[in-house]
Amino acid sequence: MDKEFVRERFSKAAGTYDDNAVVQRMMAGRLYELLAGEGGTRFGRVLEIGCGTGCLSRVFLEHCRPERMWLNDLCPEMESFVSDLLSDRTCFFSGDAEKSDFPDGLDLIMSSSVMQWFVDLPGFFRKCASSLGDMGGGGMLAFSTFGKRNLEEIQALEGISLEYLTAGELTEMLEPMFDVLVTEENTVHLEFASPMDVLRHLKDTGVTGLKKEPWTRGRLESFCRRYAEEFPAAVNDAQVAQNNAIEPDVSLHSGDTVRLTYHPIFFVCRKRHSKRYGQK
């Protein structure tokens, strides 16, 4: 994983992200709902990994008033997009979360739509467990990521994909350090007027940090033709996700002609406080 290339793509998309990241925005809202459903509304020390433009931070701070909150992102440019959230109690720091030092004694670590970019998730989960305190029987880890069907159309046509994990595989990584309180997964189908609109959507949300190969005219024409043939939009009227919740097998439909699949997965966990978790 070329983290510098990923950083460049997300930095370039920062100005267009909020208007186009409809699924990621809903995932942030749903993650907070699941966290709150487990009694997670009062936290003293909170760290958000991959805050981006602040989708999850804003939802969280509407309902919670932590004593201290740290917002982290790979891209230093994101600080300007969350500047309205910063105060003497809330600060921003940039850096690769897999390598950066975390504050100690955290009550909550949360992250939305980020961990699919990580290289060593078991090591990251150990790091989280070591940084969480024992508040209420154990600090909490709440995150959303994406499963194996995510952007399946791009994978089928271009043969490129992140190494997405199943909910079961993630659970196996978590269970040595955490009690898994909630797991949820869904599929969401966005629909677009053309394959070119799909590519613009991915560019505008920064999800192009996998392949540096340029789009030649021939490659682009072939991609658009095959995409339209193989992935037409659903014929039936679609349900629309409301109130920032994601319902199972939702399509966000506006009468368009091709689809793009997202596969959100959610976890809410509590640290098992009977062990120490060293990093390898």
UniProtKB/TrEMBL annotation:
One of its GO terms (biological process) is methylation. It is an enzyme of class 2 (transferase). Pfam families: Methyltransf_11. One of its GO terms (molecular function) is malonyl-CoA methyltransferase activity. CDD domains: AdoMet_MTases (cd02440). It comes from the Bacteria. It catalyses: malonyl-[ACP] + S-adenosyl-L-methionine = malonyl-[ACP] methyl ester + S-adenosyl-L-homocysteine. Belongs to the methyltransferase superfamily. PANTHER family: TRANS-ACONITATE 2-METHYLTRANSFERASE, TRANS-ACONITATE 2-METHYLTRANSFERASE-RELATED. This is Malonyl-[acyl-carrier protein] O-methyltransferase.
